[in-house]
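Annotated sample (chain length 443).
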Amino acid sequence: MEFLTGVKTQETLEISTLLTGDYEGKEVKINGSVHAIRDMGEVAFVILRKREGLLQCVFEKEFMEFDLKDLKEAATLEAKGVLRKEERAPGGIEIHLKKITVLSQPTEAMPLTISKWKLDTSLDAKLNNRAVSLRNIRERAKFKIQEGLVRGFREFLYQRGFTEIHTPKIGAKGAEGGANLFRFEYFHRPAILEQSPQFYKQMMVGVFDRVFETAPVFRAEKHNTKRHLNEYTSLDFEMGYLDSFEDIMAMETGFLQYAMPLLKRDYERELKILDVTLPKVEQIPMVRFDEAKKMVSEKYNRKMKNPYDLEPEEEQLIGMLFQEEYGADFVFVTHYPSKKRPFYAMDDPKDPTYTLSFDLLFRGLEITTGGQRIHDYRMLREKIAAREMTEEGMEDYLNAFKYGMPPHGGLGIGLERLTMQLLGEENVRETTLFPRDLNRLEP
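Output written by the structure step:
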């Protein structure tokens, strides 16, 4: 009888171990995928791609029994060799190969030249060959940074007493209503894909006080723009016992102040690869919705068209204005009109035509929507009735409020949009692993 006692120690070494250990002049065992082969004649450089980056190997033909012609780009291999310092190599080290064992060989030529520093191809070509295009160092770096944002979100909220929850994505009724719902049949009953975890987040505030989730949400919007997706990842939190809806904005500011140093510390290599300048998050200005519209109208001589919402051009101009006048990369726009906010949004007691809600704009693009929610059962039902909505399908949600709920509120951050703005990309599909939009269901 054999027993497993934990994670096995592997003989093959990773780049970080090679860089920090005392291996110079010693034989080491490595593995990886062939990223590129540069044949110089008697000597060739075999560049391996590993999870931590690139590792340069020196193939000296007179000392190798293996024929270089048998080694192809994208092959995976295991090898032994001697580690030498080399300033010109990635990481300042290289492996002088002694033995190669091929683990797998590609059966076809690569559809994209992933070894290039920047993929010289269209976005469609990258998305059509996604599993291959992401092997490019720059393409891969985008999603390591995205990982850092999610990691920062989780770590920060854990430290602040939040409980991570996992809510269903199949529901009976959308949290925000409207026509932008994916509807389908669920065992002979009508069902929808959830637009957000809103109802469940609020219900769980009555259980845990503070909750968060990172999960997909679905919007059946017939947009085909550079900023819209039909499935995206939302970073959501909801917190109870608010003193003011500003507590929510302060919590998001804290998250950003936690995440940016984390990226700088643990994702320095990826930031350097993509030439990213991290935004300023020491303080974030707040401006009322109506005041922001007025400021943009006056400064840029732009006529206000939609009194109830911000148009994409207005968001860009607000971002430009606050960058020019305050050096701010982010700006909270508060007190959106009640007409354009969901029924559960808390109206401003001073003026019920506006809500205690906000959007966060990052370099001229909305990446967050949030605000305080109605926590009083009677007030919630009155708002539903005033909008001539039906309570059908919301019985369980409303029942939570029958038995007392604290003042609460929360937000949702679009992960792909946040990543897009951070990296300076122009299309949200560039920062989405496998985009789902009007035209794309594959891969």
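Annotation: The chain has a mean pLDDT of 94.
Annotation: The first strand starts at residue 27 and ends at 39.
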